[in-house]
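Narrative of activities, Objective 1.

The group set out to show that a structural description can be obtained from nothing but a protein's sequence at a throughput compatible with the screening campaign. Below is one input-output pair from the validation batch, recorded exactly as produced.
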Amino acid sequence: MNFVSFVKNAVEQLNENNDSEIRVRSYSGRGMFGATCLGITTDQYTSPSGVIKDLIVAFVEQNHENKNFIQEFRQFTDYLNDPRSDSMGRGTVTYFPDIDWVDEDEDEDE
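Output recorded for this entry:
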């Protein structure tokens, strides 16, 4: 499973359904020395923990019939372990240093 692609698609659905301003992006946080990871930016009215909850719900809805669901769910929640955040003035970026930023769309453009 490409976790970044899943998150991008799930966030797109969240934005459509909730009129949200959530964005998925690469991010290099404190102590990462230029390495990039998955980042999710939210505005001042959107709870980062609420977005993580919504991602879990989306994963369950999309994969609950998969025969390897329990194993994949554990892997998915492991990816979400240890999020960090930085304030960005009017919003927050929640980032996951253990999830390397891989953007298939960027690869296609090159």
